Amino acid sequence: MYAQAKTTYITPAEYLAREREAEFRSEYFDGEVFAMAGTSELHNLIVPNIVAELHTQLKRRPCKVYSNDLRLKVSRSGLYTYPDVMVVCGKPRLEDEHLDVLLNPTLIVEVLSPSTEHYDRVKKFEHYRKLDSFAEYLLVAQDRPRVEQYVKQPDGKWLYADAYHLEDVIELTSIECKLALQDVYAKVEWKES
After folding, report:
1. Can you tell me the mean pLDDT for 138-145?
2. Each residue of 32-67: pLDDT tens digit?
3. Rounded Cα distance, 190 and 188, in Å
4. How far apart are CA 174 and CA 193, in angstroms?
5. Do 46 and 112 form a contact (C-beta atoms < 8 A)?
6. SS3 32
């Protein structure tokens, strides 16, 4: 029988103090800190493409687009994480005077990778659904053209749709924008299999 090393509980305040000084980002949940993996070249093309498209459409409206450097807190579950893209329509609510923890996103976008896909689809989505402001979720593949969309309905259920042709355009109902797959995947080159 092997003894398991006991992990030390970290408070949210301790996590934030460490994270604000850290060289690398990490997530926090239930007293534990989880290092975040690096991202691929494709990921680093797709995220700015999405941010640029949304920013262009929203620049004269009361909505703000944030990239993956702004931390999100799901207050009802205690998760601190860094979504790839977030949009807030209306006044952003931030946790404290550091102005680096968002509390009220309307739209969240995650670019999937093999190591995080299951977590993004299942566990993160579970956490995100606890946010009252959260109304739309996009999961963006990086190995092929595919964007999956979940839109919260008035009865609280989530409606699913997906697009997988570069000619497809996604209607983002929560923020009244459109996202063309050809723009999401601009300059992305996939390896031939």
Report:
1. 96
2. 998 887 788 899 999 999 999 999 999 999 999 999
3. 7
4. 37
5. no
6. strand
pTM, full prediction: 0.92
CA 85 from chain center: how many Å?
Answer: 5
Contact 37, 24 (CB under 8 A): no
Give me 85's structure tokens: 């893209």
Query: 31-63 burial, b for 16+ CB within 10 Å, e for fewer?
Result: eebeeeeebeebbebbbebbbebbbebbeeeeb
Measured in residues, the chain has a length of: 193
Which fold does the domain 39-184 belong to in CATH? Answer: tt1808, chain A (3.90.1570)
For β-strands 169-172 and 177-180, DSSP reports them as antiparallel
Q: Tell me the three state secondary structure of residue 178.
A: strand
Q: How many CB atoms lie within 10 A of CB 166?
A: 14
Domain ranges of the chain: 39-184
In sequence order, the 6+-apart residues with CB closer than 8 A to the CB of 189 are none
Look up residue 117 and give its two tokens: 């896909």
Q: Which two tokens stand for residue 111?
A: 């670019």
Mean of all residue pLDDT scores within the chain: 92
